[in-house]
Amino acid sequence: MTCVTELPTTEHLLSGNRACAGCGIGIGLRAITKALDGRMVLVNPASCLTVLGGMYPLASLDIPWINVAFPSTAAAAAGVRAGLRAMGREGEMTVLAMAGDGGTADIGIQALSGAAERDDDFIYVCYDNEAYMNTGTQRSGSTPHGAKTTTTWTGKRENPKDVLAIMEAHRIGYVASTSAAFPTDVYDKMVTARDRRGLRYLHMNTPCPSGWSFDPKDSVRLGKLAVETGLVVLFEIADGVFRLTGRSAALAKSGKPRTPVAEYLASQGRFRGMSEADVAEVQAWIDERWGRYVARNAGD
Length: 300
Ligand SMILES: Cc1ncc(C[n+]2csc(CCOP(=O)(O)OP(=O)(O)O)c2C)c(N)n1
Ligand code: SF4
Ligand SMILES: [Mg+2]
Hints:
The chain is α/β, with parallel strands linked by helices. The protein has helices at about 25-35, 50-55, 75-85, 100-105, 110-120, 165-170, 185-195, 210, 220-230, 245-255, 260-265, 275-295, and strands spanning about 40-45, 65-70, 95-100, 125-130, 175-180, 200-205, 235-240, 240-245. The chain binds thiamine diphosphate (TPP), iron/sulfur cluster (SF4) and magnesium ion (MG).
């Protein structure tokens, strides 16, 4: 695993970007652009990432970037790749599609499924801040059970959609789950993805102080806590082989109990007022999924 002091020092996300203080997207994006060494075309639909990047001449990213209609991210990325191929320039850069959870789990899933079926040659990153944040925190398919949003005033009743399982079911070569709270985990998975061909899918948890209602200084701490509980699990599936990575692998190996999810839920305003029964339901959901992941783990 790459050590944080070994990360490339060149920055592609420049100072003065428009993200809220403590936003997880910026942390993850720095690791992603470092892994690709800036040699990339970014394809992105409306989202907080668009706002973070800003508009010419005040853009905060020094990479080519195309902003596309909400449902079309994966289709547009396939088109950019085809265009580069037609120009004989496909070896020069990686095509990176990057969309939020709303733009992936809900609105963009049709184009993404089509690209996966064709095994189109690009990397797709879903950054998951667990709601439609850019438009003021509406519930998405990825919003966790119990979270209050402007469209789930009393807390969401359903568990989040398992987009990673959906992508695995397409039998693409590389599927990975990561978290912006672990930039070296993001970096290593992006390097692996960069060096493969076909559709590669990464799902990156990105804490959101504004939408989750917590102090911006706690972004990384909460992102790590989510992994300690097993709510977010770090893993990769390469050519069908499932392997826990980083802190999740260490947790599984230690055999020690994970942190109860109640601690994580109590740390954010969006979960305020959850009933004990709802907390127990979330815990049971995590435990069942964790058991399945540990049983599949082919790593040490
Ligand atoms: C077709 C379409 N519907 C709705 C919108 C309005 N809209 C812009 S950004 C956004 C939220 C995006 O949510 P997500 O993909 O999770 O990204 P986030 O804002 O959370 O980063 C919405 C609903 C739009 N731009 N286009
Ligand atoms: S609303 Fe959340 S995801 Fe959007 S820029 Fe602010 S902290 Fe980041
Ligand atoms: Mg979102």
